[in-house]
Structure prediction request, 371 residues.
Amino acid sequence: MSITVTKPFLPPYSEYQAYIRAIWERERLTNNGPLVNDLELKLKEHLAVDHLLFVCNGTTAIQMAIRALDLRGEIITTPFSHVATTASIVWQNCQPVMVDICPKTLNIDPNKIEQAITRQTSAILATHVFGNPCDVESIGAIAKRRGLRVIYDAAHAFGTQHQGRSLLVHGDIATCSFHATKLFHTIEGGAVITSDVELMKRMAIMRNFGHVSATEFGDVGTNGKNSEMHAAMGLCNLRYIQPILDVRRRLSERYAARLAGLPVGFQEIAAHAQYNYAYLPVIFEDEAVLLKTLDQLNSNSVHPRRCFYPSLSKLPYVTRQSTPIADQVSPRVLCLPLYHTLSLEDVDMICELIKRSMQKNGSDRECDSPH
Ligand SMILES: *Cc1c(COP(=O)(O)O)cnc(C)c1O
Prediction:
C-alpha cells in the first residue's frame, strides 16, 4: 500500500447515505437547497463569522472576491502559494505584484509590502500558507493607511484560531477551499467570508448568474453555486472536525519528535495562534538533499509532495519580479504525508526512511575521505 501526501477524510458511509436518501425524497439537488442553507448556517456558527456563502470551489471564491471588491490594476500577492492565488488575479484582468516571503513563516513579508505599492495598487491578496496566520495586524494597518483592500486566501486556514477567534474573520473577504485534499472538505467546494453585508449581497447575486429575482438581473454573474450532495458531505464532516484536528496535531507532534536533531527546518507558526496542523512542510538545507530524500521515500512507496514549487514568480504569465527568498526556499520544501488514517507507525517509518537517506549522505562523504 502506498502512502500519499494526503487522503480525503471520509465520514461513516451510513451518515452520508442518510443525507442522500433525504435528497432523493425531496427531489431537490441544487440552487440553494436546504442542505446548502444548513451548511452555511452551521459553518457561520462554528467559525463565528458574520456572513459566509458556500461556493463551488476555492478558485471561484477568490475570483468572486476580486470582482466583488471591484479591484483594478495591481494586486500585491505572495509567490509562495497555490497557483490559483496568482491565476485568479490574472483571470480577473489584474496584475499580480509579487512581494517576497519571510523564510521562517513562509508567509508574505509585511515589511516589504509598502515599497511595492504604486498608484495602480488596489489590494493585497495574501495566503495563510499551510494554515499559518499572516501578520494580519501589520497587513491590516498598511491597507488602512494606503487605502487598499485585503483578501486572504484562507484555503488552508480552516480550524486555525488567532487571538482566540477563527483566522477567517480577517480581511475584507477571506476565501476558503473545501476541496477533498483540504482538512475540512465538501469533495469540491469553497466559501467566501466577510463581515460587510453589502459585499455579501453582491457575492450572493454574483454566485447565481447575477439574478436578483427570477426575471431581474443586477450585476454580471457567474455560476458559483454548489450542490446538495456536496453540502451533505460538509455536514457529515463538520461533525468530525475536532477529531480531525486532534489526529493531525498528534501526528505532527510525532513527526517533530522523530525528526528532531536532523538538519531540517519547520515552519515558524505565529504567536497567539492555535494552529490547525493542515500540512507538514519540512525545509531541507538544499534541493539536492530534498531530491535524494524524495527518491528514497518514493522507492518505498511513500509519496510526499513539493508544495509550493516552483515559486509563482516564475509563472509564464507573470512579469519577472525579484523574490529571492521565495526562489531560494520553494525548491527546499517538502510536505510530508498527513491525513486522518495515517498511523503513528507510518510516521515512524517515514521518519526512519528520511533519517537513513540523510545518514547515507554522511557515509558517502566518509567514503570519499582518505583514511
Ligand atoms: C486548494 C487551494 C486553492 C484552490 O481551491 P480549489 O477549491 O481547489 O479551487 C486556492 N488557494 C490555495 C492556497 C489552495 O491551497
Observations:
- The pocket of pyridoxal-5'-phosphate is lined by residues 57-59, 81-82, 84-85, 127, 153, 155-156, 177, 179, 190 (CB under 6 Å).
- The chain has two domains: 3-99+108-238, 241-363.
